[in-house]
């Protein structure tokens, strides 16, 4: 591990001063703000025992050499940087001078940078942060403006109003930055819902306007939010409104073309669930584009056509009113009679959807084809227009429409049907290729899989829309004819072919004229739940320096010695720390070691592992001694796994190394 240039005694003093922050930050987040004071050794400002820090907000935060905007600029920094605050007036515990904080990269005076205005920072009293937990088994968590809205969402998890009240949501697992996200906690509140205790966290983060594909400045990770940012701290001006209008013109059009013969009744019924899911996806696209859906049904031609009813019917043109569309779908009925043979009027339904739909000029166009039987071939009396497979593929390709067939296995017409569907999904180019699914429509398990896979398809298409919007924004931001544009226009994945097929250069020109960046991340504050549906949403971490980790390891090794031999070993370790730091450690035989460490050194004791006194150590049975030794060893292994890995540390200032330690690693 990298070693700083500071002397060991100086570093130990610094660590023992700083580490006091840990437990107090974990236990006093919800209490009144203590008065300001100056740390007697380091000179940094503190509230109670907690050192005052600030977090930078904007993309370009100017740090001035003097407390004035007219002063020379010492440095410019990006968002979510952490700074320690020194007194704004010499030898006085004053927080600001003319609304400027006096800041440093570390609690060391030599790392003082200059002055930053209060509008550019968020004050931060502790150093606990959160990472997002795995999304496995749960939905993306929502962030709310108020604690009240969060409490409501927890108590009513299935309420659709939660989506509209949310101001952000956590990033998807697909985000390359997701595992690097560390967000400062500003406040914690314990909540009891249905008799279960949970926590709500007020966090600072960068709000993404809903346009994906453009990374945050300085590599700072941020939640990818596809929700309405109107409640976030974005500036709304005329140009900004024009940008929103331009982006809203980019649509996702989904036309369901569905077999409505007699055998398809169960599938029609289950499709309502898919549209309901799509409604939720649509609610997350307010700042860019929108989702429109429509429905074309097809049956077949038979001798007694009156009994069969229609051959092709458009039940709904493309509409953004997904609630109304769901009502239409719920009223759709299958035919009362069966077809005379396996093939049906599938080509007729597809041709009608392609030619008679008012597709959006900008955006993605998708036909979701759902059926259980093949189409009548050209030359058949039941295909009077002689519509061919290649004709459908070319008609769709000319309009950049992708066909995504979902085959239901309900009869013996599977081989020909599969062959036709695979030709339909292949398209005429990489950008017009669809996706394929196959399901057993004769049992509920197959129908359930149809619903889940089709929901996943809807989510994927919604993500494609967000990526398409993001690509327009990125190209608009890059200089014309630059290498950056060339890179953005070069496909690297299958999804890229779809995106690039639908790039509209008139939209890019319009965005360039606005001179705005609709993808600019905005510093925001909101509330998020610790758990969702019984699953962890976030995992708390603590900011610690390398020296603090050494001190913590020193304590645990002393305890380990006491557990392994006698309490005298632990006492000897305490005396060593006293002589090194010059700090007197009171040894009260009736006070638990965890309390001593918390009160004197602020070591973040999160469990009951150290809830024993010195006298109790003398009376341990061999079983108790082995148990404590085993637990202490596990904690030491976890802490050493970080201490011995230089890649875990980040240099902040000239002589200050920090790492983010999972709270569960602490004793």
Fold topology:
Blueprint: H1 8-27, E1 36-38, E2 45-47, E3 50-51, E4 53-56, E5 61-64, E6 73-77, E7 82-86, E8 100-104, E9 112-117, E10 121-124, E11 128-132, E12 142-144, H2 147-155, H3 161-165, E13 166-169, E14 183-193, E15 196-207, H4 238-248, E16 251-259, H5 265-283, E17 290-298, H6 305-308, E18 312-319, H7 322-331, H8 346-355, E19 363-371, H9 389-398, E20 401-409, H10 414-426, E21 437-440, H11 444-477, H12 483-488, H13 494-501, H14 505-514, E22 522-529, E23 531-532, E24 535-536, E25 538-545, H15 546-564, H16 567-581, H17 593-601, H18 614-618, H19 622-643, E26 650-651, E27 657-662
Parallel strand pairs: 16-17, 16-19, 19-20, 20-21
Antiparallel strand pairs: 1-2, 2-3, 4-7, 4-10, 5-6, 7-8, 8-9, 11-14, 11-25, 12-13, 14-15, 15-22, 17-18, 23-24, 25-27, 26-27
Helix pairs in contact: 1-17, 4-14, 5-7, 5-11, 8-9, 9-10, 11-13, 11-14, 15-16, 15-19
